[in-house]
Design a protein that fits this description.
The chain is of the alpha+beta class. Helices cover 18% and strands 35% of the residues. The chain has two domains: 75 residues, no CATH class; 155 residues, Beta Barrel (Porin).
Amino acid sequence: MNHGLFLIAVFIAATALTSGEYSSDFMVNSNTTTHNPKTTPHNPNTTTHSPNTTTHSPNTTTHSPNTTTHSPNTTTHNPNTTTHQPPTTTHHPNATTHSPNTTTHSPNATTHQPPTTTAPPAPTPPTNMTKGRYNVTDGKGNICILADLEIGIRVNTSEVNGTFIVQPSKTTSSGECLEKTANIILSFDEGTIILKFKNDETKQKVYVELVEYDLTYAFKRGALGNYTGKNESLELFSAAPGHSYSCSAETVYMGNGVSLDLTNYRLQAFNIKSNEFGTNDLCKADKPDYRVPIAVGIILIILIVIVVIAYLISRKRRSNGYQSL
């Protein structure tokens, strides 16, 4: 009796243990969770940052069924096999590649030009009168004005006293040729001079009827002045048609203390043949003046007559002083 009670107690205890292990095994197996590694690929941080992409695989939990085989009076306890895979998280190293801040500083290429200082206007170096040859041609290439000139603009006022000399190497000529009129324009850095010729068939003369000048020049250092003037209704440098006019020195007064000085010059307009000057008509200053020789001759004749008369009178007195015996 006592032996039967002992077996019953052992059976009950075994059953209780088996139930406890079953519950424990069930609980453990239920908590078996397989975690796939969380793979978070981090793209390297470059100058352009790609968005962080995190891929999470779903948590997969596999529950193995608890198998309990009860043999009669034999309790086989399968060991509670719980496989806990350690959560494997593969962290790619944050491969952040920082491109070096490459800042290219171009050198400040600042070219400082030295300040430009404008020198005050001053007279040009002294020079001598120089003859230049100028001409004007018509539309057919024929010369209608031919001029050999040494010319200067002389200013004589209370403030200025000096002469600007036109230099042929720095002077150009232009103009216009018409049937009855023609003009020549002498242009240089400091201004212009204009001569207008007229072919007057009534008077059978060719002459200059207008002279005009424009000069901007500093006769004194720092005193730049502008001088302009015009003289018209004239009959200057008159010559017969087909002839040229020449003079060794002549002055044309322009008013306001300004004069044009012309030296060793020769001019001709119209009827120019073979691009050469025609017969030369001299200015009055260059024409021979016979009045002085004539006056001297007359005076000598008078003196001779006086001497002869005095001699005759003297001789007659001598002859009257002798008496015949």
